[in-house]
Design a protein that fits this description.
about 30% helix; alpha+beta; six-stranded antiparallel barrel; disordered C terminus; 17 helices; globular
Length: about 800
């Protein structure tokens, strides 16, 4: 499952067992299960743990290994599987929960922070407690999926959750009613079902509420109208969890055997790795191609200035793929400039075309992560962590605890009608009438989306970012401002832009300049509109321009850029791989396994280990195999199958059976493969100061480092020091070198560390201090620099503006 609080890795630390050992698990308390029309057990299997009394025990509502005692399991008769039946959808239950006790109502959420917010909203008649994420899960030490028994999972109590479980059980027995309020997605639904199992609650009863926003009105309305646990969502999540466990715990031992111990593979993780490695191969194989930019600086008689670029020669375009690739030699450059010297530069045409730029859609999970990375430098995981804080609520003076945004794991672009009306009212009161469109702007997501959710938006559009100054942390403010401004912009009128094109000729050579002018801001009054060109002064056809200078610049085509975390998420989404709740964790897993590093440009770069793993997987699990788990199309189709399970179109067991049948055939072929050889580490020509063995260049999560070839017997390491060319301004002896912190952030320090402790987050400016001669360091501001030794700061008038 994808929740960060108790997320399980793709592979265990030790070799997994398959099939799972049929023995009691020490961490599970006994729980019997309840009957449901959605899915039933084919066979009851033993769990383990001490017995605790609980009233009204019934059959389990979903297929899976029970956690009752072995003695009880032996007495249990087999029941026919009901996985093919249509699962429960939305509840049609009454709007009040049946009261079973005399105490307060118990509300169970996932997060302690959300619990605090809801406690203040709901008041003294409710007790709000947190399960602190998942309370039951598959054990990490073994496969725990009984493949021969309809893929029955063996759930156990998550390590360290006994105290939480006991507290919730005690409170539930005293409560007048129990309300399960985990997050409103598949995973939250699965958590609600697990709580039903532990607390002896019938999931078909009206026990489930879903908060899409945590505001007093929305919370109270949801509590008044409880629903059933949506077993279709539970089964879809269970199918995903079992699929990921089968792939990870079956493939990982294969990698241990064929490459080296400690490796892992995963259903979505391996696709992401394949994309990164494929891009790395493209970059290696890329052959740069030379071309030239030929520019003419010109002016009109009244002083209007133009900068035109060579566009054609003899009537044929010189541009291809957005570059002047056909100016591929000095001879062509000379031919163009020769025409400029011989003939006057005459304007042939000037056109202006107005265009409308439609308002951007509100955020969904993937676009929020992309824009937060692009505009605020936040990683996907950090973005989702901050969004969770904004969703769960902050205390606002005069308002009390308030959730500031709607649920942040969504692929929908839908906005509730009442929210749209409030947004339009805000625009009407805050902007001129021309900024409000006649009717609302509606958006729809490409492909399939969970339309029960809304897009990510502020819960109250009148809570502006400015009104939260001093209340939110800097990162919270950055993210809330992005969400608020994007949402308001989505309901505003289009921006109007004038696109100007000036063409001119000199003999056989043609020239062109493009320009853009913003005529009416529209939505760009609150959200940045990236104009590609500058404003272009009008010119008349036949007007002769005077040439003030010419310039030639040789360029080379560049290989495709490596993925950033944000661009990788965009590709995965476009290919239909993964879902909103999984995007942030995909890259983190690749970092943790040592398959990918973030380079100095904050781009994703595969390591030799990652490429070796990818090469092996591509050989046996590519698009031509029966189980092509590293193929984006195959993985996207699997995601569609899980969506079908959620919608009640396909039984979850059918998806698992189809996958496992083909996967085992492909695995059998891969088992016969010879062992793959990892590329040996590169020696650096030095011996280890501790044991005398050669030092080698290695790769870690945060890039290259130097380590001893005698590892693990010798654990000596040191960072790779990149000299900047500046002398240390503190000791005057060592060099200023570039290092990396434990979290991979670059900084600058003295090569003589620890003898000299000079450090700086900013690089040397390349100039010496005129006062003391020490190396000047930049200050982070554009053009800013100072001397760290004597404190000298250049006056503004003497700064180099280049």
């Amino acid at each position: 499952m994808a929740k960060a609080a108790k997320k399980e890795g793709t592979a265990p630390r030790t070799a997994p067992l398959s099939p799972p050992e049929k023995q009691p698990a020490k961490t599970e308390a006994p729980v019997k299960r309840k009957a449901s029309s959605s899915a039933t057990e084919k066979k009851k299997a033993p769990g383990a743990g001490k017995k605790t009394a609980a009233p009204g025990r019934k059959k389990s509502p979903a297929a899976g290994r029970t956690s009752s005692s072995p003695a009880a399991a032996e007495k249990t008769k087999k029941t026919p599987p009901a996985a093919g039946k249509k699962t429960a959808g939305r509840s049609k239950a009454s709007s009040s929960l049946p009261e079973t006790g005399t105490g307060k109502a118990l509300v169970i959420v996932e997060s302690p922070t959300k619990a605090k917010t809801l406690t203040k909203i709901l008041g003294p008649k409710y007790v709000v407690k947190s399960s602190v994420g998942h309370i039951r899960d598959l054990p990490k030490s073994r496969l725990a999926i009984d493949v021969e028994n309809d893929f029955a999972p063996e759930y156990i109590l998550v390590k360290g959750k006994a105290k939480v479980k006991n507290e919730l059980t005690g409170l539930a027995q005293k409560a007048s009613r129990v309300i399960l309020a985990s997050d409103p997605d598949r995973e939250g639904e699965a958590i609600a079902w697990h709580l039903c199992e532990l607390l002896d609650i019938d999931p078909a009863s009206p026990c489930r509420v879903r908060f899409y926003e945590i505001t007093p009105g929305a919370v109270r309305e949801a509590v008044k109208n409880p629903e059933e646990v949506n077993m279709s969502k539970v089964e879809a999540q269970q199918a995903r969890r079992i699929l990921d466990r089968l792939v990870g715990y079956t493939l990982s031992p294969l990698l241990w055997k064929k490459i080296r111990r400690g490796l892992s593979a995963g259903r979505v993780q391996s696709v992401a790795l394949a994309l990164i490695c494929a891009r790395e191969r493209e970059i290696r194989e890329f052959v740069p191609r030379a071309y030239w930019l030929v520019t003419v600086a010109a002016a009109a008689g009244d002083g209007r200035k133009y900068t035109l670029r060579a566009d054609s020669l003899d009537g044929k375009s010189l541009w291809k793929e957005g570059k002047s690739l056909l100016i591929d030699s000095e001879q062509v450059v000379e031919a163009i400039l020769g025409e400029v010297e011989k003939f006057p530069l005459t304007v042939t045409d000037f056109k202006v075309r107005e265009s409308l730029r439609a308002a951007p859609a509100p955020f969904k999970t993937s676009t929020l992560q992309q824009e937060a990375a692009r505009r605020s430098g936040l990683s996907p995981r950090r973005t989702m962590s901050i969004a969770q804080e904004l969703f769960e609520g902050v205390s606002i003076p005069g308002r009390g605890p308030t959730g500031l945004i709607t649920y942040m794991r969504t692929d929908s672009l839908r906005i509730a009608p009442e929210a749209v009306e409030k947004c339009r009212a805000y625009i009407a009161s805050s902007f001129e009438p021309s900024y409000l469109p006649e009717k609302e702007n509606a958006y729809s997501a490409k492909g399939r989306s969970q339309d029960a959710h809304e897009a990510i938006r502020p819960t109250d559009v009148t809570i502006t970012p400015e009104s939260l100054e001093g209340i939110l942390t800097p990162d919270q403010m950055k993210l809330y401002s992005l969400i608020w401004r994007r949402y308001v912009a989505s309901q505003m009128t289009p921006a109007r832009v004038a696109n100007a094109t000036l063409t001119a000729s000199a003999g056989r050579a043609g020239f062109r300049q493009l320009g853009e002018t913003l005529l009416f801001p529209g939505w760009s009054a609150v959200w940045p509109l990236d104009l590609k060109g500058e404003s272009l002064q009008p010119a008349a056809g036949g007007e002769v321009l005077s040439v003030e200078g010419t310039d030639r610049e040789q360029k080379f085509t560049r290989p495709p850029a490596r993925y950033s975390e944000a661009t990788l998420i965009k590709v995965l989404e476009d290919e239909g791989v993964g879902r909103p709740s999984t995007y942030a964790s995909i890259v983190e897993t690749l970092y943790d396994r040592g398959y990918v590093v973030r380079n100095e440009e904050r781009r994703l770069q595969s390591t030799p280990l990652g490429e070796t793993v990818d090469e092996f997987l591509m050989k046996y699990f590519n698009g031509e195999s029966l189980s092509s788990i590293v193929d984006t199309g195959f993985t996207a189709r699997m995601e569609e199958s899980l969506d079908d399970v959620e919608e009640g179109k396909v039984p979850w067991l059918a998806v698992l059976r189809d996958f496992w049948k083909n996967f085992t055939v492909t695995m059998a072929e891969a088992e016969t493969a010879p062992a793959a050889q990892l590329p040996p580490p590169e020696p650096i020509g030095e011996d280890c100061p501790e044991c005398g063995k050669p030092l080698v260049l290695k790769n870690g999560r945060f890039g290259e480092f130097i380590g001893c070839s005698g590892y693990p017997e010798c654990r000596f390491t040191r960072p790779v020091l990149v000299k900047t060319g500046a002398v240390c301004p503190k000791c005057g002896t060592g060099d200023v070198v570039k290092r990396k912190s434990r979290k991979g952030k670059p900084f600058y320090g003295c090569s003589r560390y620890p003898e000299c402790d000079f450090v700086s987050w900013n690089p040397p400016s390349g100039r010496e201090c005129p006062e003391c001669g020490a190396a000047m360091m930049t200050t982070g501001r554009k053009g800013g620099e100072e001397c760290p030794k004597c404190g000298y700061v250049p006056p503004k008038e003497t700064r180099d503006d280049d």
